[in-house]
Specification:
The chain has 7 helices and 36 strands. With about 625 residues, the chain is of the alpha+beta class. The strands form 10 sheets. The chain has a 7-stranded parallel beta sheet with strand order 31-30-29-28-36-33-32, covered by helices on one side. It has a 6-stranded antiparallel beta sheet with strand order 3-2-4-10-7-8, with no helix packed on it. A hairpin with a 5-residue loop joins strand 25 and strand 26. Helix 6 runs parallel beside helix 7. The radius of gyration is 24 Å and the shape is globular. The protein starts with about 35 loop residues before the first strand and ends with a helix.
């Protein structure tokens, strides 16, 4: 049976170019790249069976990986119920990588995955948004190898982190996805290899801290760090480079650590390199340095930007979000990362990049990535383009009821009582522990990306518990970024921001006070449905409706100039407009869900944004 996308569905223009041979062919991990790898995307056998049953003897057909099974681009478009299990199977042949270990990588699998190679279990993983890998060398055979993945995904029937996925989509809740939804690949590594990198710039000290995780047979091996700027070596000057008691050579573009005294199974080595007169990264000048890390026979390529996020004071003493020790007003859209043809998975890297280039072209300098984690290449493109990303933690537990939601949006937030975890769907201690584990893994996974400028652990009370404590932990674990501890509501007084969502009423200028910056983390949501480009022509959700592009543009420009400008003048630090694109029945994007029709006059929108920057510059 020949694969084809499920017909009769809203599609983007990139869908026509998708084939089993070119499904996401790009190397998926730009911050730790090796030249040799094998992409396992393409057609996999699939079967959906009752959860209690063993592996199926026969499969139902073929699904195109990495598109989730519910999507049109998978070629299947079938839902997965909580009482079912999704099975995948494919064969592969390992290239001539003899004498090396072989790692099997998954970009993301939603939600619980168990993996077998040639009938041998190689590992299990829980969590639908973050990458994981297993060494599979002992299970490999010459010639054909069989890879099987079993997935269980209860979605909103459980406490798991799931973002906006629900089994019965409605209003602001969207189609659930299941199974493999990011690239699967194999990679050879030597017997001792680099298992992870954390790269942290320190603008004030003019240095970069490179933490290298070693794994394998001999973790006492030395680590070499080489930094270049557009091909020119960066000289490590000054008094020398030190790393947790490990000395390293200074005065060279290459910095080499001395091996530690013992060789435990895994080891972190930290090297600090002085960057003379660093070129700072910013939205106006997204400068990046190239980085090569070598350990024995292993060599990985990476990059970083020198920048500093934080809080400071403007000329009037008001708390402001700052970049590189200067106040910077941040403005951009809420970005949900849904696609009509691929759901969670964009049709291609080009399609994903188009969204980001649109945001930049409209004159924005940031976006808020809403309750979803994107493929690593997404953040790589933000680094290159100069887009600051406010990264939400994936929501789980239980959303707040509609009456409470309406009251909070209409009249403001109230402090959530943490004594009753069940109200937020957090009554199960395992669910709370899982949230904390995935939050830490999220920070570890994205912490080296230059663009990440804010952590947002909770949004509008969905699954919110102990938000103040979560913010305190984040600030200790990653002191290099601000934290918006409770976007919208319920504010517990923690983090770095007083964070407001305003939809149904005029924007109320609020004076920053105390130590926290004021941010408008959601507003607008103005709606216009475009016939022929709607997910569901019979249903429309939005906060204020308009009949044509001219009226919508007029309203948007007026919203900025009559309401947002005065608030900026009073000390507002950032604003997030809802949203980049339409999403399912939400018709409040700058562009339609299929990315085909601009819903506003983009020239007027860009000009309005330029006036916004002028207002912000004059108020700083």
């Amino acid at each position: 049976m020949t694969w084809q996308p499920v017909p009769g569905h809203l599609m983007t223009r990139w869908a026509k170019d998708v084939t089993p041979e070119n499904a996401w062919p790009e190397y998926p991990r730009p911050q730790m790249a090796r030249p040799e790898w094998l992409n396992l995307n393409g057609l996999w056998d699939y079967a959906i069976v009752p959860r209690a049953e063993p592996a199926p003897a026969r499969y139902d057909g073929e699904s195109l990986v990495p598109f989730p099974i519910e999507s049109a681009l998978s070629g299947v478009k079938r839902p997965l119920r909580p009482d079912q299990r999704l099975w995948y199977r494919r064969n592969f042949v390992v290239p001539d990588w003899r004498g090396r270990r072989v790692l099997l990588h998954f970009g993301a699998v939603d939600w619980e995955a168990a993996v077998w190679v040639n009938g041998q279990p190689v590992g299990e993983h829980r969590g639908g948004y973050l990458p994981f890998s297993f060494e599979i060398t002992p299970a490999l055979a010459d010639g054909q190898n069989e890879l099987i993945v079993a997935v269980w995904d209860p979605t909103d029937a459980f406490w798991q982190q799931r973002g906006k996925q629900v089994l019965k989509p409605r209003s602001i809740w969207y189609t659930a996805i299941s199974g493999i939804w990011q690239t699967v690949w194999l990679e050879p590594v030597p017997d001792t290899y680099i298992a992870g990198l954390q790269v942290t710039p320190d603008v004030d000290a003019s240095e970069v801290r490179v933490q290298v995780r070693l794994a394998g047979a001999d973790t006492s091996a030395g680590v070499r760090v080489q930094i270049t700027d557009a091909g020119t070596p960066v000289v490590a000057a000054g008094e020398g480079i030190r790393s947790h008691g490990l000395e390293a050579l200074a005065g060279l573009s290459t910095v080499m650590s001395r091996p530690p005294e013992d060789s435990s199974p895994g080891r972190d080595v930290e090297i600090r390199v002085h960057i003379p007169e660093p070129k700072l990264w910013s939205p106006d000048s997204p400068h990046l340095y190239d980085l090569i890390v070598t350990c024995g026979e292993d060599r990985v390529a990476s990059y970083f930007g020198m920048r500093k996020f934080g809080l400071g004071r403007d000329d009037q003493g008001r708390p402001r979000l700052c970049l590189n020790n200067r106040p910077l007003f941040q403005y951009g859209p809420l970005d949900q990362g849904y696609w009509p043809d691929g759901l969670y998975t964009p049709p291609s890297d080009e399609a994903m990049r188009w969204d980001l280039e649109l945001i930049k072209r409209l004159g924005c300098n940031m976006l808020r990535k809403h309750v979803k984690v994107e493929p690593a290449r997404y953040y790589y493109h933000c680094d290159r383009l100069g887009l600051i990303v406010w990264q939400d933690m994936i929501s789980g537990g239980k959303e707040v009821g509609p009456i409470t939601s309406w009251l909070a949006i209409r009249f403001g937030s109230r402090r959530r009582d943490d004594r009753w975890f069940w109200r937020a769907g957090r009554g199960d201690p395992a669910g709370r522990a899982n949230y904390r584990r995935e939050l830490r893994e999220l920070v570890d996974h994205l912490g080296s990306f230059t663009c990440i400028g804010m952590w947002v652990p909770f949004n509008e009370g969905w699954g919110q518990f102990e938000a103040h404590a979560a913010a305190a932990w984040l600030k200790e674990y990653d002191p290099t970024r601000p934290v918006d501890h409770a976007s919208g509501w319920f504010d517990q007084g923690g983090g770095d921001c007083r964070s407001l969502h305003v939809y149904f009423k005029a924007l109320p200028p609020a004076d920053p006070a105390g130590e926290r910056a004021v941010v408008l983390s959601e507003f607008g949501g103005y709606t216009m449905k475009v016939p022929g480009h709607a997910w569901n022509p019979d249903v429309e959700f939005g906060y204020r409706k308009y009949g044509d592009a001219a009226a919508l543009t007029d309203a948007y420009v007026a919203l900025l100039e009559r309401e947002l400008h005065p608030w900026i003048e009073r000390g507002l630090s950032a604003a997030v407009y809802t949203q980049t694109t339409d999403v399912e029945i939400e018709a409040n994007g700058f562009v339609t869900y299929d990315r085909a029709v601009p819903k506003m006059d983009w020239q007027r929108v860009t000009a309005a944004h330029q006036r916004l920057w002028a207002c912000a510059e004059g108020c700083a």
